[in-house]
Fold these 4 entries.
Entry 1:
Amino acid sequence: MTVNDDSFTHWKNREEIAESMIPIIGKLHRERDVTVLVHSRSLVNKSVVSILKTHRFARQIAGEELSVTETLPFLKALAALDLGPSQIDLGMLAATYKADDRGLSVEAFTAEAVAGATGANKIERGEGRDVVLYGFGRIGRLVARLLIEKSGSGNGLRLRAIVVRSGGEQDIVKRASLLRRDSIHGQFQGTITVDEASSTIFANGNAIKVIYANDPSEVDYTAYGVKNAILIDNTGKWRDREGLSKHLRPGVDKVVLTAPGKGDVPNIVHGVNHDTIKPDEQILSCASCTTNAIVPPLKAMDDEYGVQRGHVETVHSFTNDQNLLDNYHKSERRGRSAPLNMVITETGAASAVAKALPDLKARITGSSIRVPVPDVSIAILNLQLKREATREEVHDYLREVSLTSPLRRQIDFITAPDAVSSDFIGSRHASIVDAGALKVEGDNAILYLWYDNEFGYSCQVIRVVQHVSGVEYPTYPAPAV
């Protein structure tokens, strides 16, 4: 047999193993509310090739490829346990098992590692939580996709309604089409149908009522069967407590803003300060996409090295608040053509750091340039550290943070030497450390952080909503602190 034949046979064998994993993963998700991950990447509803690619990803981080032959025994062990709602990372299970020298069987080790999600310790499955989207623009539609994707078990977040202003004839048909097809993020994964008579969109079996209103005061959500809902405001029209309080109508219990909050509205970056949300807090903000991109790595660097001061320069994709061609705009530079120019503009991300990281004493400044790409941005974080470090030390530290720390869902890490912005479309992390671009000299470190300012940010919004709704399930094995 030739080398080529041997390689192809090996690939087919792995395909067969990955294929056998799919029904186990699906059953765990549907029947027990268990999400199976590999290095923080979900395997739920993934194809054979996607499962193999997800395993291969470990190669560029940990130095060697993770094989499905390694993870399948752990998956089978999980299927035999009395599991409750949870997220379980096969990559972490395999890695921690390799490092364990007690000689335990895979079954015994797995049972011990996920003991917090089994038997008397397991969380009981709830009825789910209603969610309402107020506004249906770029972020609103991506959040909708994520909510529909995560509704498989029927016991988590349930998208019940979308509130928009009427756009005229066939409004609901046009909005459903925008949900179905996206020029950047591709086709919706599933089926979408519309019932114009009842003003309802059906997406993968989810009945989503489209409510037409010009102001929050016009809506009684209980009239649509919505109760105790979390409303996600995607419009950004109201940013302070007084304005956002207008959403606290019958049927709505909490309001989450997908823009930086003003005044005393808490700005939450999941993974960093989401555990500071008070149980009775009804109004909160998910800050901005850039704040979510820079705060997790900033916290990681401050925890290990200390940060004396810093500056963030964001090179940001253009957005809908800019003009396609030169025209009047309340902001002078943003009135110039977005697809034809680099546009210097302001960013509030640096000042927002203080809200998310109140213990950080370092002064952080910031500025931004909008550039002619439709999605994915990069933040260049220039830090003066409290102690000297080497490039290799910081490189290895950030790689480990992305794999095993509590920030592993927020911070990703890539070593590909030819990485460019379009490679990160669809990334579910808040930011991705570009290892090749990292610069460290003495007490100065410069981090290049890619981020999908649409989809990655939307994933952070969903994580915050899951947390405040009580359906953010624990992850096993527990990340290193």
Entry 2:
Amino acid sequence: MNGVDVGTRTARQTDPAVWNTLNDEQQKRLEGLGLTPQTAPAAKEKGKGAGAFERGITALTQYAAREGRVVVPRAHIEETPHGPVRLGTWISNTRTRRNKLTDQQREQLAALGVDWATAT
């Protein structure tokens, strides 16, 4: 469509900020195609990736309960109710960035038996 991807165009047109600028006829045409304005995404606790830590903790808890340990192979992918989590990668990245963890996050890791969570 004039060099623009249809998916990109659809996403743009259904964005509430754009949708509200369309006239009634334009909105009716889009609705006739089955399109409606997008709902606003739920606000995250903090910036990008706020939910990633919680998904990682869920996956690590599940893994620890099943395996009886928190040492995870780097390539391990844990299937969770929220989808697959690259648990080995998550642990490695979390350890590398441990200085940026909140006290609560460190406590969650320590409660699961992650020894480096309490070290500074």
Entry 3:
Amino acid sequence: MPHIDYYFVAVSPWAYLAGNRLEEMAGRHGATITYKPVDMGRVFSATGGLPLNQRSEARQAYRLQELERTRKKTGLPLNIHPAHFPANPAPASYAIIAAQKAGGGDVGALVQNVLRSCWAEEKNIAEDDVIRACLTAAGFDPGLADSGLLSGATQYEANTEEAIQVGAFGSPFYIVDSGQRFWGQDRLDDLEAHLAGKL
């Protein structure tokens, strides 16, 4: 049974635009997923990337065009300039980590709820009420927003260090236990081809 480590940032528009395709393909191929939210600022600084506000005007303009094209291709609602971006992704990341550890709900749905809150619903994912609502909608105890803070923070740091060590330099980033790495939601077709033994 293949396994996928999924590294992402809880405010990444590209992770949002992946929708539930990762979960669907994992179901088709009997793959398991471990969700690993990371501090992308630290990952960027260690791997040669730049935060959005430090990129050249040309790169920032291209990003906006790509977001709009991808929005149209996926059909997902997307605010190109959401009201609460950038928001601190750490509290939502801690909750995702705690929920995955606790079990009993749908972690993929939780991740998508958080991302959709930012990119489609104009909500601040750093706020407790938003995080609690995302947990509840995915079948988790909303109290994990509080009870999972310490363990979530510790694992968040570990995920970030691990991402740097294994070469996961962007969001979303998928690493299969075969050693194959895939960067970006636009590589999900390649990931599925790999799971099917075609790549």
Entry 4:
Amino acid sequence: MAKQMTEMLKGTLEGIVLAILALKPAYGYEITARLREAGFSDIAEGTVYALLIRIEKRGLVDVEKISSEKGPPRKVYSLNLRGSEYLAEFWSSWSFLEEHLGRLRQLVENPPQEGA
């Protein structure tokens, strides 16, 4: 993945994961699989797990340990009220950026003609 794309994803991955959890609670591997299904195929599992620890510490998700047939119990993450509020703010910020970047792109791609 290009360095620029990696940097952009770092700034938005939290919101993307919260959006995935808004659809349905999930454990780490499931979240990674959903990211890949959504086209974010280059995101490493380790990145997702580190992010899950951060959003748990920030109180954006609730965590429930569910027994697993194989190995230790799984931590299932679900979006809580604080996480939902953060996600709403994320979407608002995203809409703002999308709109303003779109306008800027139009200006760059179709600059006003001098004297027009």
